[in-house]
Amino acid sequence: MMNKENIIAINKKLVQEIENTQSRISEYKDLTKPIAPENAIGRVSRMDAINNKSVVEAALRESERKLDQLLDMQKNITGEIFGICIKCKSEIPFGRLLIRPQSKCCVKCAS
C-alpha cells in the first residue's frame, strides 16, 4: 500500500497530465476540422492536408483514451487496489506511476 506522500505526489502528477492532455485534445480538435473545398490549395496540398488530418485524428483518439485512463486512475487513487498491477497483483513502483500515472500494470506485465 502506498504512503500518503506518494499518493499526494501521484495525484499532483495526475492533475498535471489531465490538464496537458485536455489541452492537447483541444488542439487536435481544432486541427481535425473539415478542410473546406473552397480553400484555394492545389491537389497535392489537399492530399497532404487530408493525410495530416488522419494522423491528427489518430493522435486525438489516443489522447482521449489517455484522458479516460487518467481520470479513472484519479477517481481510484484512494482505493485499496491503486498502484497494484492488474495482472500479477504486485505493487507498481512509485517511479513508474510518476512517469506514467495511468499505468495499471507493472513494467514486467506491460511488456
What does this structure look like?
By secondary structure, the protein is mainly alpha-helical. It has four helices and no strands. Helices cover 64% and strands 0% of the residues. Helix 1 (4-31) runs antiparallel to helix 2 (43-75). The two termini are 23 Å apart. The mean pLDDT is 88.
Largest sheet: none
Mean pLDDT: 88
What sort of overall outline do the alpha carbons produce when their principal axes are compared? elongated
Helix content: 55-70%
Low-confidence stretches: none
Order of helices and strands: HHHH
Strand elements, count: 0
Number of helices: 4
Which structural class do you get from the secondary structure elements?
mainly alpha
Gap between N and C termini, in Å? 23 Å
What is the CA-based Rg, rounded? 19 Å
Strand percent estimate: under 5%
List the defining traits of the structure above.
111 residues
Question: Layout of SSEs?
Answer:
Layout: H1 4-31, H2 43-75, H3 94-99, H4 107-110
